[in-house]
Amino acid sequence: MSLVLDPATEDRIQRQLDRGPYAEPAELLNRALDLLEADDWLVRNSEAINADLEESSAQAARGEGYSPEEAMALLAARRAARAA
Fold first, then answer.
1. How far is CA 56 from CA 8, 16, 61, in A?
2. CA-to-CA separations, 61 to 56, 57, 72, 74, in angstroms, rounded
3. pLDDT at residue number 13
4. Per-residue b/e over 30-62, b at no fewer than 16 CB within 10 Å?
5. Total-model pTM
6. Mean pLDDT, range 17-43, rounded to an integer
7. Are 60 and 68 in contact (CB under 8 A)?
């Protein structure tokens, strides 16, 4: 595939290459596409995400949440289980 870019877009790409960890335009483009796909996923799932956030807020209001210490212990246990 061959792309024809306008000078402004080429300048934007070059600025990102100059300042970032990307050595090649293809790496930068892959990262940009990853971000677009993640954004698409968020848009497609926004209703479910918002419902989960509302439920979490309601649980916290009812005092059903975890303390910071409990949350950290739970996360550590889950990481250990994944590593095993």
1. 44, 38, 9
2. 9, 6, 20, 20
3. 95
4. eeeeeeeeeeeeeeeeeeeeeeeeeeeeeeeee
5. 0.57
6. 95
7. no
